[in-house]
Amino acid sequence: MLAISSKSGKRLNHHIVIIILKSFGKVKRRLYKKLFLTDEYRLRRRIYCRAKRDMGRDNRKMYWSNKVTFYIGEDLRTFWVTREPGREDEYATKNLRPTFKSGRKSVGVWSCFCGDEMGPLYILPEGENIIAKRYKYMLQTLFIPFYKRMRRKYKDEVIIQEGNVSWYRIGIVERYLTNKGVKRMKWPV
Description:
Elements: E1 2-4, E2 11-13, H1 14-23, H2 39-54, E3 62-72, H3 87-90, E4 105-114, E5 117-123, H4 132-154, E6 159-161, H5 166-169, H6 171-179
Parallel strand pairs: 3-6
Antiparallel strand pairs: 1-2, 3-4, 4-5
Helix pairs in contact: 4-6
């Protein structure tokens, strides 16, 4: 494969391009996916974080929780294969990348930690997501016992940090945590 230099118009082998880029400390990489934040929101977050840092809070006494989704059957890596030209070798088993028949599957997992202790792990039922009712159930059965244990260990300094998704802030969850006396960290709007 040949690449065309934009200035000289001459055709260059892609290996030569890689060598030249490497000599200048450049390499080809995929872009990272990251949540888009406006400059204003980024600034507000930075101010908020600095204010929290200046409070002198011990982050080891923060109760961190999050939900993550793993996708099974979705591999975003690029694979290359060297093969003979022609259709008969194109679909040979050794030249194919296997996929799941139904496409990708997702597995949702929620967990938490506080200090050096890992909290309980909750695996969501297949194909389901967290909604307020399920989150309240997770709080009742998993979070509160762990939270109480951390309060015995770290005293009143334990505070929960949650994300900014709707099921953290919905009425039944807010009321439940308030009734249980759970201290929550406030996020900037």
